[in-house]
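Problem: given the chain below (320 residues), write out its structure.
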Amino acid sequence: MKLTMLYSFLKSDIEVIEEELNQAIDSDTSLLKDASLHLLEAGGKRIRPVFVLLSAKIGNYDIHKVKNVAVALELIHMASLVHDDVIDNSDMRRGRKTIQAEWDNQVAMYTGDYMFARALNYMTALRDPEAHKILSNAIVELCLGEIAQIEDKYRFDQNLRDYFRRIKRKTALLIAVSCQLGAVAGETDKESQKRLFWFGYYVGMAYQITDDILDFTSTEEELGKPAGGDLLQGNITLPVFFAMEDDRLRRKILRVHEETSPNEMKELIDLIKTSDAITQSAEVSQRYLKKALKQLDGLPASRAKKSLRDIALFIGKRKY
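Solution.
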C-alpha cells in the first residue's frame, strides 16, 4: 500500500498545501524562484504537513488556518535539506541534482535562508506567541543538530547517546512540533497537544532510524542518491554502531574516509547489510513506534487518529 492511501481523505487539503507552497516560494527574482522550484518539484513525502493536518483534525479543523502551519513546517524541512546538501557536498536529492550542484553553494545557502524566512512569514498568521516559541525552539535545536553532525563526522569513538541526541534534533523534534502545532492550530486541549508532541517525537526517532537502515538496504534508484552515502560522508548511524560490535567489521569501518573507493564502499555496505546490524536497528525503531502508538491511546477515536496510527505502522515497514 502507498503512504498516500493512508490519508486519502485529505487529498483536497493536500492540494491546497501544494498550491500554497508554490505561492510561498514565488519570487520576482527568477534565480531564487527557479532554485526553490527545483527542490519543490522534486516531490517528497510531505509527511510533516500531513501530521499537521491530522493533528488539527483531532480538534476544531479549519484548513484556512491550519495550512499556514503546514506550509511553514514543510518549508523549514526543505530549507534544512538545501543546507544539508551544501554541508555534505551532495550532488543528488530526490533523484535530481541538488541546488548546490545545479547552481552553486551561494545560491543554495540563500535559497535555504529564503525558505526559512518564508516559513516564519506563514507561521505569524497563527496569532499565538506560544506556538511561535515552540517553533523557534525547534529551529534552534535543528541548527544545533546540524552543527553536531559536522563535529561528529568520522568521529568513530562517539557513543549511542551522541547519535540519539543528534537524530532527535535533526529529525524527531520537527515531526514532534508538526503534530503539536497542528493540535494547537486545531485548538485541542493541552493533554492532546502533549500526547501528539510525544507521538511525533517517537515516530520521528523511528523514521530517522529507518532512513539510516535504508541507506544500506535500498538501491540508488530507490534512495534518489548513492547507497551508503551517510557512512562515506562520515555520518555514524545506528547500523554502523551495531556493525562496529563485530571486530572484523569495525576494522573495515575505521578505514572509511572521503576518498574511499566505490568498490571498497560496496564491499563494506554488503557486509553491513548481511550482518545483525540491520535487524538490531530495526528492533530499536520498533520500540520507538510502540511508544508512539501508546500516546494515541488517550486521544478520542476518529478517522485522523486511525490515519496517525496507520502512518506510524507504515514507517516501521517502509522500503523507501
